[in-house]
Amino acid sequence: xxxxxxxxxxxxxxxxxxxxxxxxxQVTKLSTAGGFxxxxxITLMIGVEDYKVDKVISVISQYSSxxxxxxxxxxxAELGISTVLPFxxxxxGATVFVIDVDRYKKV
Length: 107
Ligand code: 2BA
Description:
Blueprint: E1 2-8, H1 10-22, E2 28-33, E3 40-48, H2 53-64, E4 67-71, E5 87-91, E6 95-100
Antiparallel strand pairs: 1-3, 1-6, 2-3, 4-5
Helix pairs in contact: 1-2
Ligand 2BA binds at residues 7, 34-37, 39, 41, 93, 95.
């Protein structure tokens, strides 16, 4: 058995948890914060049989890997310009640890 620990944004974590629950994979969600930037993030703890590890990593990659997104960037009205110029930002990204579990027991 393995324990997968994965850190990602709160927005992405909702989709990851839903997709894992649909696969009948249990998840514990912790509210955490990055030590460097101090931004809030989510840490998921997922205990699974070894053969499910790749499936979990593929779900995490599908819903939380780094991607580009266009955001609207409205020009200030004082400039008399009504154009909205989109700009590109990078969102998402997950860190994944896979750890051997010596013993798993529910009492
Ligand atoms: P990422 O490497 O994508 O890391 C995002 C968040 O994932 C981190 O938030 C942290 O909460 C967690 N994380 C990543 N790698 C980890 C690890 N090996 N062990 C435990 N937790 C881990 P932050 O610490 O706030 O970092 C945010 C972003 O700032 C990082 O994005 C990275 O691009 C940058 N960064 C982090 N530490 C840095 C440093 N010492 N020097 C320069 N840049 C740093």
